[in-house]
Amino acid sequence: MEQKFARLSHIVAGGAGVVANLLLLAMLSAIGVQVVARFVIGAPTVWAEELARFLLVAITMIGSAALIEKNRHISIDVVVDALPKGARIAVAWLRDAITLTVCGLLAHYGWLLVGIGGRQTSTGLGVKMSLPYLAIPCLLYTSDAADEEDSVD
Q: Quick one: pLDDT band at residue 12, thresholds 50, 70, 90?
């Protein structure tokens, strides 16, 4: 069962990485359209800046989930590497517990924000704000805080 969960975790994290990269391309395209429209044509768009902002949040949250599964977030591990193996394992468990707690809080309050966003509409794109807010609770559902390939050896 654990092996199936690990495989599913790899598939979801890989998909999250692909989605984050595609969203990055979309964001760069929207910014490019905005630059051309503003400085070449002289008629800036209303929607491009807002779309880029929404995509940046989505990229951050979805890309973060992919990095959690691979244990690739930025970390300062000089002190942890100096600890004996038992202490490193304890610190890794503590790190994972804190990460899981933060993901849970983000998911909980993110869902509340999605509910509130259903009553608001964005000015530039005219979409319900629940759609861009949906990227926040997605972090919990696409992340695996306890990676089986932890680097505590």
A: confident
CA distances from 44 to 32, 33, 53, 147 (A): 11, 9, 16, 45
In angstroms, rounded to a whole number, what is the distance separating the alpha carbons of residues 10 and 14?
6
Report yes or no: 44 and 37 within 8 Å, Cβ to Cβ.
yes
Per the CB < 8 A criterion, the answer to whether 55 and 27 are in contact is yes
Percent share of the chain, pLDDT over 70? 90
d(CA 28, CA 113): 26
Look up tokens 């680097």; give the residue: 151
Token representation of residue 60: 């951050």
Helix (H) or strand (E) holding 58: helix 48-70
pTM for the model stands at: 0.78
Radius of gyration of the chain (CA): 19
**Is pLDDT at 70 greater than 50 in this prediction?**
yes
Per the rule left: phi > 0, alpha: psi between -120 and 50, beta: everything else, 42 is left
Angle between helices 2-35 and 48-70 (to 10 degrees): 150
